[in-house]
Write a structure and sequence with these properties.
Helix content is 39%, strand content 30%. The two termini are 77 Å apart. The longest helix has 38 residues. By secondary structure, the protein is an alpha/beta fold. The strands form four sheets. It has a 22-stranded mixed β-sheet that branches. Strands 19-20-24-22-23 form a five-stranded mixed β-sheet. It folds into five domains: 204 residues; 187 residues, no CATH class; 78 residues; 144 residues, no CATH class; 58 residues. The chain is built from 14 helices and 32 strands.
Length: 723
């Protein structure tokens, strides 16, 4: 018992002695700043190891910043804001150091210009604000240090390398390493294992993630091309050099609990300045110590190309090495540049990679990708365990999605943009499945190409099945994309084997897309049916049909009647009396026959027959009444009318004639439309009421109607049966 009490009493001293062993040296903030200034003035490297930077109340007051927080009360931080600039090639190394944690939140370093800055096992909340690192910024943790945070903002950094060696304990949520990059301009950033990462609002050329990471949030960054990230240069021909530049987001071989890539965008090639394009030529020219008088640069964005011409280069005779260590210039390339210099010829340089998002061979619990305008997005060979969300994707060139293990359907969120520029890669070129046969005839029979095309179709089907299960309308867009792929394959089949059957398969698919969106839009098909009926009715309107019997003879007869009316003393009633009199004579004879035979038949038949005559008599008298009321010539001739009456009757005649023409047109249009509907729907009407070659058009319309309506019915049944 006494031994246990002794151990407990000695424990504080033991812990204190352990801390002393970790930090063998202590300096104040003021001493730390003086050492930095002295190293910068003497143009020497600065190294600080196993040191605790403590706060001295008397000497360090000018570096203390006090901030009141609503949630955390009074917060103290130390801010080092000095005009310190380290020379080219120098290094500042802080290893196994810590800022005094008692009573302070963080140490902030502002407005200091470094060349190389190495931070190793820093056990503090460290903030780097508005600094300039022209060489490398390396942040490394080679041992377990709990709850450390590094924040870098508003800075200009050439290269960042962040690594966490002991990443296995990241499953312990209480031991989290935090890295925040906000509002910086960064050429190259490589992160290998971390706790939580937030990268937002940066202007960044290349970002690489690997290793084990708890959370990575990459949001609202702008990605651009920087030719200092040149990966390799190789010769293609005498006048062509191909340059591969690292640009965009590259996540390969990572294990990330949650990754969110949202609202990022790449700066288009045309937005780059001429100086940034010229820089790579100057690097080649200066490294080879030759003069290039003119050149042409072609920047390829997927299958789209943009060309820039520059005829003048600023001559720089100094000899400089390329910054990228893996960039090679061959002796043959030097010879070509010298030959071009002598001939005053041009050099064509092709840059084959714009900012891209590459996510491959990685493992995620949740993956969320929501981007704005990238040339290429590749998500392949990944394992997503819990949830994946691909939405609002904006891809200029290609979207690769292949060999991914996905979670259950209800945990997959995709939208119509997932189908945009969906493609596969063959021989380092993107193919979308809609290429003309002339573009692929040399490779169409290649097994790898056919396999890629089949996989592309399979991915479309996979997305469609997901959207169908979730009941989302974006499925229709996927179906149209899939049918386009199948149509392209049918085109290839026809050009490979020009059979009539293959031609109909190809053209039939094109027709189905135009007519009904491959059966997904039956009412689009119905609208085309409507227009076919209208067009044929316009044709029938021109020609005679037996239903209205309006032809030249009919019109001549009507004009003759009008001329008789104005040139003779006939009344309106006289023109129709002959017809009606004959009709009434028939009914009078019917009445007399009925009276004579009423005793020879049942009285019921007599009672039913009488109204026929009575109705006819009433109709005759009613028409006679209207004819008399409509009379305006009153048995006079046109020449007998006074001038005033001629104006009145002429105006009246004009409107009556126009009304009669409208009536005839309406009757003719109605009959033509009815005939067209009858022929199109193939209802049948006995003898065709048209003559001559017009009847052949009616038969053709019947065939077209049968064909189009059949497809319409299949389309609408397909929609009704789809749940």
């Amino acid at each position: 018992m006494k031994r246990l009490i002794f151990i407990l009493l000695c424990l504080p001293f033991f812990l204190f002695s352990q801390e002393k062993k970790i930090y063998t040296k202590t300096i104040s903030i003021t001493e730390f700043v003086k050492d930095l200034k002295l190293a910068a003035e003497q143009k020497k490297d600065y190294t600080l190891e196993n040191c605790a930077i403590i706060y001295n109340e008397k000497a360090d007051k000018e570096y203390v910043h006090i901030q009141n927080s609503k949630w955390h009360g009074t917060l103290k931080s130390a801010i080092i804001n000095e005009n310190i600039s380290f020379p080219k090639g120098s290094s500042v190394t802080l290893s196994n150091c810590a800022f005094n944690p008692h009573g302070f939140v963080n140490l902030a370093i502002k407005n200091i210009k470094f060349w190389n800055l190495y931070l190793i096992n820093i056990n503090s909340f460290l903030e780097l604000d508005s600094i300039n690192v022209r060489g490398k910024l390396d942040i490394k943790y080679g041992k377990k240090i709990d709850k450390v945070t590094c924040s870098i903002k508003n800075s200009n950094i050439n290269s960042i390398n962040y690594s966490l060696a002991d990443s296995l304990y990241l499953n312990e949520d209480e031991n989290i390493h935090l890295l925040a990059l906000d509002g910086n301009r960064i050429k190259y950033c490589n992160i290998n294992s971390a706790g939580d990462i937030t990268i937002g609002g940066n202007h960044i050329a290349y970002l690489s993630l690997s290793g084990e990471i708890l959370f990575a949030g990459i949001e609202s960054n702008q990605f651009y091309i920087d030719f200092s990230n040149t990966d390799n240069i190789h010769q293609e021909s005498d006048h062509k050099i191909n340059i591969n530049v690292l640009a965009g987001i590259n996540i390969v071989g990572a294990k990330i609990r949650s990754l969110a890539v949202t609202k990022n965008k790449s700066i288009k090639i045309k937005q780059l300045t001429n100086d940034s394009l010229i820089s790579i030529i100057n690097r080649i020219k200066d490294s080879l110590n030759v003069q290039v008088r003119g050149y042409m640069m072609v920047l390829k964005n997927g299958n789209n190309g943009e060309t820039y011409m520059f005829n003048e280069l600023i001559e720089n005779k100094s000899m400089r090495h390329l910054e990228a260590s893996n960039t090679l210039i061959l002796k043959e390339q030097l010879d070509i540049l010298e030959q071009l210099n002598e001939k005053n010829d041009s050099l064509q340089i092709i840059h084959t990679k714009s900012p891209e998002i590459i996510i491959q061979f990685s493992e995620f619990e949740t993956l969320n990708v929501y981007t704005d305008t990238f040339s290429l997005i590749s998500i392949s060979s990944n394992t997503i365990k819990d949830e994946i969300s691909l939405h609002s994707l904006s891809v200029d060139s290609s979207f690769f999605f292949d060999k991914n293990k996905l979670p259950d359907v209800e945990r997959i969120n995709i939208d119509k943009t997932s189908f945009d520029n969906l493609s596969f890669n063959y021989n380092n070129k993107s193919y979308y499945g809609n290429e003309e046969f002339s573009d692929v005839k040399d490779i169409y029979n290649n097994k790898k190409y056919l396999s890629g095309l089949d996989k592309l179709i399979m991915i479309h089907r996979q997305f469609i099945n997901i959207l169908d299960t979730q009941g989302k309308g974006a499925k229709k867009i996927g179906i149209l994309k899939l049918k386009d792929l199948e149509t392209t394959k049918k085109m290839y089949d026809y050009y490979n084997d020009t059979k009539t059957e293959n031609w109909f398969n190809w053209k039939g698919s094109i027709f189905l897309k135009w007519y009904s969106d491959h059966g997904t839009n039956p009412f689009k098909a119905l609208s085309y049916c409507f227009w076919v009926v209208i067009y044929f009715s316009l044709f029938y309107f021109i020609f005679y049909n037996d239903w209205d019997k309006i032809d030249r003879k009919f019109l001549i007869k009507r004009f003759n009647s009008a001329m008789d009316y104005f040139t003779t003393e006939k009344r309106i009633e006289d023109f129709y009396s002959t017809t009606h009199d004959k009709e009434m004579t028939t009914f009078t004879e019917f009445k007399e026959t009925l009276e004579n035979n009423k005793v020879h038949m049942p009285s019921m038949l007599n009672s039913l027959a009488k109204p026929i005559y009575q109705i006819s008599l009433f109709r005759y008298k009613l028409l006679s009444f209207f004819y008399k009321k409509a009379e305006f010539m009153a048995g006079r001739k046109w020449l007998d009318l006074k001038k005033k009456d001629r104006y009145l009757i002429g105006t009246l005649t004009f409107f009556l004639t126009i009304s009669y023409i409208i009536y005839l047109i309406s009757i003719r249009a109605l009959n033509s439309l009815t005939l067209s509907i009858n022929a199109f729907s193939t209802l049948g009407f006995g003898q065709i009421p048209v003559r001559g070659f017009t009847k052949y058009f009616a038969i053709i319309e019947g065939f077209i109607g049968w064909f189009l309506l059949s497809i319409f019915l299949v389309s609408i049944l397909n929609q009704m049966m789809t749940v």
